[in-house]
Amino acid sequence: MSPPQQPSSTNPNSLKIRLTHRFLHNLNNLNKKRSNLDNTQIHRRSHRVKLAAYASMARVVGSRRAWSRAILWKIRNRKVFTRNKRVDHKTTHHHHLARSIKRRTTNHSNHKREYVDPNGNSGQEVKLRKLVPGVETMDACGLLDETADYIKCLATQVEVMRNLVDLYSTI
Amino acid sequence: MLHCHYTTMNIPGNTSGTDVSVLERQQARMKWRQQQQQGLSNDDHCFRGLVEIKPDPGLQYGWPDFSDACQDQLIPPLVADHNLKKRKTHEDHKQKAVSKENGVKDKKIKRCSEENSTETSPKEKPKAVETQKQEYIHVRARRGQATDSHSLAERVRREKISERMKYLQDLVPGCNKITGKAGMLDEIINYVQSLQKQVEFLSMKLATLQPRLDFDIDSLIMKEMFEVPAIGYSSEVANSTYFQVNSLLEMGNSPIDTMLRRSIGGPVSIPETFVVSSCFNQMQPGVTWDGDLHNLYRMEIQQESTTIPFQHKFTGSYEGSNLKMEL
Question: Alpha-carbon distance B99 to B105, whole Å?
Fold first, then answer.
């Protein structure tokens, strides 16, 4: 039998298994901790589930990657901060999400793409830096590296979550 | 302009007698031309016409005019480059300059001879100049650059970035046709945003489903996963949940995936086999999962309805597996 924490990180099979374990583990903890929450606070629950998803992603990858370190650091600081700050972050995150959704549907303006930063980054690279956590100060090469790893883990996490949703919806 | 300066700089001892140098170059060029382009008799005529024209505007100052005039033309010296390539490994400075002149002048010659009917664009001209520079790299470091170490490092950096972009092209679905860096970055940004949005959406779904279901199932599943699968036979409930999660993990969540696997002829996703042997040893290759994800991603983009398609598909595959279990 394979233990959950296998050293091979590039194999998507083991990555998926580890993500599943870790995510279920986190969800379990979440449910146990916040047992007082009921159905009416779906908003907050969904945010916690999302946090659990990102946390499990970052935990599985560990400290190898800049994005996982950034996520873990953010989550750790989030626990340190007060609840007000967490609410603020939630609202700002939703604003950011709404903006990004709007931008996706109306992305025919090229002026953002061709804009060049004073540092020499194009407008697209700036956007990418905002999307991937922890790559603010990296050069273009490292940025692409982190983006590739982030995409891989994110895709696996999405698949795990989708499987879980299907599992729960059909029981 | 650049190569003009270069020719004037790199030709030693020729700054004073430019008349002589020009004629020498022309003679050398004529020799090569006669060696290699024997079929083009017209060239010589045009050539001589050029020989006459050239000393008049001059010399150093004639070069800029010449280069500017060349830029107006639409013919890249690619064919000439092929001829010149063979000579390039054995050239010294002067000959390189001459060959470059050859390249430059061949454009004019072809224009007046009208023998090469190549369809080109003005954009290819700077590219041709660059390919000329690139061809020199196996002789020595590039010409036309300020310092060689910088340009080499820059080239290494650019190659690294292109290598990473290629890897990203494999990761992001549907990027095979896009070649530019900007287009690729757009696709990557869109993909990351869509993945994050999916995570948010799925977490909302999970949050709605959570209070209904007891998470003891999860602890059971986790226990079963840690233990030997043969023990899973002991309790029916655990077996069913174990089977469900296994079916989810193994079969994927769309009939497309199962059909793929049947067609591949690999281990068929029969639930019993998974229950018997360890689920971790019988993992399908990750490629099919990625393919599944890509299929779903494409579906989502096309249909723009995220939940309904794969739910339907999953229930179909789940019922199928149920039937198998009953058998």
Answer: 9
Residues constituting chain A: 171
What's the token pair of residue A64? 């190898």
Q: Please tell me the distance from the alpha carbon of residue B82 to that of residue A21, in angstroms, as a whole number.
A: 60
The whole-angstrom distance between B180's CA and the closest CA on chain A is 13
- Range list of H helices, chain A: 12-33, 42-61, 66-80, 83-105, 111-114, 123-131, 140-170
Any bridge partners for residue A116, and if so which?
A: A122
Q: Is the pLDDT of residue B161 over 80?
A: yes
| DSSP β-bridge partners for residue A122 | A116
Q: How many CB atoms neighbour CB B282 within 10 A? A: 15
Chain B residues in contact with A141 (beta carbon < 8 A): 157, 160-161, 164
The C-alpha atoms of residue B18 and residue B324 are separated, in whole angstroms, by 90
Most confidently modeled range among A98-112, A126-140, B122-136, B263-277: A126-140
* Of the partner residues B182, B202, B283, the one whose CB lies closest to the CB of residue A158: B202
Q: Which helix (H) or strand (E) holds A165?
A: helix A140-170
Tell me the three state secondary structure of residue A122: strand
Phi, psi of B139 (to 5 degrees): -85, -55
ipTM score assigned to the predicted complex = 0.75
Higher pLDDT, B142 or A128: A128
Chosen from B181, B188, B226 to mutate, greatest number of chain A CBs within 10 A: B188
**A53 interaction partners in chain B (CB closer than 8 Å):** 199, 202-203
Question: What DSSP line would sit under B137-178, residue for residue?
Answer: GGTSS-SS-S-HHHHHHHHHHHHHHHHHHHHHHHHSTT-SS-
Decide: A41 and B266 in contact? Cβ < 8 Å.
no
pTM confidence score:
0.47
